[in-house]
Amino acid sequence: MSLDTLQDLYFEQIRDLYSAEQQIVDALPKMVEAAANQELSDGFAKHLEQTREHVRRLEEIGERMEEKIGGKKCKGMAGLLKEGEEAVGEEGEPTITDAGLIAAAQRVEHYEIAAYGCARTFAEALGLDDDVELLQQTLDEEAETDEKLTAIGLSLLAPISEGEGEGEREVSIEPEVRRSSGGAQRRAKRGGDDVRA
User: Fold this and answer.
1) How far lies 156's CA from each of 49, 115, 125, 152, 166, in Å?
2) Cα 169–Cα 174–Cα 177 angle in degrees, nearest 5
3) pTM score, whole prediction
4) CA 174 to chain centre
5) Which terminus of the chain is more solvent-facing, meaning fewer CB atoms within 10 Å of its CB: N or C?
6) Of 77, 76, 60, nearest to 25 (Cα)?
7) C-alpha to C-alpha distances, 184 to 178, 191, 196, nearest whole angstrom
8) What does the alpha-carbon distance between residue 25 and residue 159 come to, in Å, rounded to a whole number?
9) Domains of the chain
10) Quick one: DSSP state of residue 185?
């Protein structure tokens, strides 16, 4: 397909998201089964139901566009889910393997957050208010899932950071930014306003 207009680009984004969500629907049951922690397993199960609703919303957008949104394969999601399959198959200490599942799931969530954010912005530019509402709703749910995964991860890793698990190093999932001059480190807080040297 030739991308000559913003409408063309928007349509391709919707098709890509539709493929991504369908792949996630297929992958999440394995995550539900693989998680040792009940809260994590329940979280994956809840997100499976949300993802089915995300698929339905995209189908609604496709119907409004009077276009077929199926038939495209989201290669980015396929790659992320292939990595996720490796996490599902790992053996070891349950807390650590669950942390690996969370890492894999958050990669997927971050991909979706970026993709839905772009699609919503394109819909806004095109004046497609009904689409904007649906896309924003899904975007909010993806961000909420990401936050819940972070909370579960911190809960799982708390004993390790307190020295009760293997290793005694403090665990932090905040991103670290290293300055090239002098090797000083800064921790960037969410929102970017609170930066400690």
Assistant:
1) 24, 29, 42, 6, 13
2) 100
3) 0.79
4) 17
5) C
6) 77
7) 6, 21, 11
8) 32
9) 6-196 (1.20.1260.10)
10) E
Torsion (CA) 5, 136, 14, 101 in degrees, nearest 10: 140
What does each C-alpha distance from 140 to 9, 117, 121, 135 come to in angstroms?
A: 22, 10, 14, 9
d(CA 141, CA 109) in angstroms, rounded, equals: 10
**Among residues 46, 44, 53, which one has the least CA distance to residue 88?**
44
Phi, psi dihedral angles at 186 (to 5 degrees): -130, 145
Strand partners, 178: 185
Residue with tokens 């393997």: 97
What is the chain's pLDDT, residue by residue, as a tens digit (197 residues)?
678 999 999 999 999 999 999 999 999 999 999 999 999 999 999 999 999 999 999 999 999 999 899 989 999 999 999 988 888 888 889 999 999 999 999 999 999 999 999 999 999 999 999 999 999 999 999 999 999 999 999 998 888 766 654 444 444 444 443 333 333 333 333 344 443 33
Residue whose C-alpha is closest to residue 55's, from 9, 8, 17: 17
- 8 A C-beta contact, residue 129 and residue 38: no
